[in-house]
Design brief:
Distance between the termini: 43 Å
Order of helices and strands: HHEEEHHEEHHHEHHEHEEHHEEH
Strand content: 5-15%
Shape: globular
Helix content: 40-55%
Strand order of the largest sheet: 3-4-5
Structural class: mainly alpha
Oligomer: single chain
Largest sheet: 3 strands, antiparallel
Amino acid sequence: GFEIIIFKTKSIGTADFRCPSFEECCKLKRSDFKIWCDKMNAQSEIEKETAFVLWQNIAAPLGLYKQEAILCNKTHMNAVWGWDNCFHALGVAKAFPKLAFYQLMLIFENADENGALPDSVTPYKVEFGFTKPPVHSFIYEMLMERNSFFCEKEQIEKIYKPLCDNFKWWISARLNAPVYWHGNESGADNATCFDKFSSVKSPDLYAMLSYTAKMLSKFAGMLDKKAESEYYLKKYYELGKNVEAMFFDGERFFVIPTDDFKPFYSKSLLPLQCLVVSELLSNKCKEKTFELLENEFIGDYGITSEAFTSEKHVDGQWNSYWRGSVWGCQQVIFAEAAKKAGYLHMAKKIADGYKKSLEIGGSAENSNSVNGSGNCAKAFSWSAAVMFY
């Protein structure tokens, strides 16, 4: 047998070749992981397993990473993506609020001059090929509910302006209205609502921006910015009311492709994320949409990205992706939306189902909606984070 020792140096000068023994290294890491589990309150085997995924995906400060950053995983997606980071933050918020807060700020610190957020950030590169959906305020409110650290004025002051800049970019940068230029920008890359045309207006985007405006109004009030608070409150209602007025036909939601601006129907879960602002929807709209979720989307392992009744629903390792797989991020969004709307049984069913899939298939990038097995990349942080949601 033999040992391989990898030395890390930040300089091209002489490296420090001092190194503890293999046994000492293992002892230190076991101790560090035990402390992590204790703080995360990870007690069961599956909790420890998912806690390990988050722990081992942390990257040390380097280059653009001014503090520790939680990567998606350490294989082919070894970067911080512009909305995965929100769910990573949610997973560690109770135990490590400063770590959680930096996951959000890392993406905002690397926004462009107009407020658009990057697709991903590595220590030496910022990728702007696509942007990502504006879920940040929706998640931030959940962070505030879990740890008072996120309610402190110091944190609100830091995040307020970049959130404002990103909000204004979304509502004015494209066609002077919120538009996804590509499925990748919605987060649901190959969802069937993009099958006719890649660029669409979608109710989920309007709803998330409505939620953003609501939180910005709240933050502005906390910072004694009365005029800004009133402006964002107006935008909250305006965008939220447009969710139903523009995208609901009395029975179901649709998207509007920007090639002909005519309604396009699919059985994708993505547009239904507009339920995050269910308080601004009519009772009929809200009830019909939650009924649709119950009847066509919720299975034994969480909520599927394409309705079980759809001819385009696929179950498989790679080809399903956002056309039938179960994704941790959507479990959080819909469980929280259901809880806020008073559908507590549905919220619990979604969360419990997905945690069951984590036990079966591990913290994979996404899961098979029929048997719970793990799909695509393994040891994925946002999946593991849902265990601590």
